[in-house]
Amino acid sequence: MRYFVITGHKALADGSFKLDDIAGGAGRADILARCVNSAFMLSHGIRKDAEIYLVFEGGDDSPKTVRINGSLVRYLNPDERSTASLLRNALLKKIPEGKEAVSSPGVFVSKMSFYDVIDMLAGKGSFVYLKEDGSDVRGFDFPENPIFVLGDNSDLTQNEEKALLEKGPSTICLGPVSLHADHCIILVQNEMDRRGL
Amino acid sequence: MRYFVITGHKALADGSFKLDDIAGGAGRADILARCVNSAFMLSHGIRKDAEIYLVFEGGDDSPKTVRINGSLVRYLNPDERSTASLLRNALLKKIPEGKEAVSSPGVFVSKMSFYDVIDMLAGKGSFVYLKEDGSDVRGFDFPENPIFVLGDNSDLTQNEEKALLEKGPSTICLGPVSLHADHCIILVQNEMDRRGL
User: Fold this and answer.
1) Which of A189, B93, B99, B122 is the most exposed place for a label (fewest CB within 10 A)?
2) Distance from CA of A49 to the nearest CA of B (A)
3) What value of ipTM does the predicted structure carry?
């Protein structure tokens, strides 16, 4: 499985945003929607071996985490608006205490924070931190179930980075130019595709 | 310069679409908007050495071509909706006979067809056709001013491909998996960035 964890530092966890304003009032939920596209979209289908965790860290009702699983997801299209609609529907769901709610097939929502997510994933694979000073992905020896961790349009906070570094992640970069999170996901997917992983 | 030409086979040239419906009624203008993102967006800026030609081939008023130049463009943001708005504004412009109209800084619109675009670009660089049976981009010797040509969610038509092949393009592929046009652009940009081109 390829896991992706993206922190939406200002992304509104209460789902009270308009689909016309996902790049503004939603706290840059557009970035998260594009990361979903990069994580799953193929020309003729969906990547079934991918799972994404989007951490909504903005607003009073934060944090919440929307999880999308590629082998279960339905109604996922490549455009930002329809993806943001899936995310908003999840954020508007009532979440049972300490549990995860199903929003639509393959789309789940919980009250997990970034710290909860990485603690939970620690047993499932090996962390890979995408960071500009990392070693080049092209020489990287991918672990079996990589858990790629990225910030949205701002880096992980100091505390988030500290918690991640305590997990002993590999640190990789994708090239000489600093890129958006969704572009980084495309590049890492391509490298794994080329290796047949 | 890195040139990109994308054919929007059903993309509505008259601009009569709603921004809420760019993936539907607009004839998949969402794909074109994502290609604009891939052509220009860097983490901290815009690629000034890129120019994109989006050919709108759908509806009665077709064809039209929207050209965006990275060194001139203003008001360009990464999200699909605001990009679609720039494109729609251009499509709604009155175009002087045989000329190109300026819609907003760096955004231009003309009545050029795909054939007009490739004829016009032929003097400016060398064509590179992105196609699944091409040779691997990683071994590709990039020409000085590459003109990358891609279809949207469907391949070039037979006639379009024939016209392109008459220009003697190089043909390259990006990896073992068939990808969306905007993802292909990310991969080709990364390869050029790595070579310092």
Assistant:
1) B99
2) 14
3) 0.97
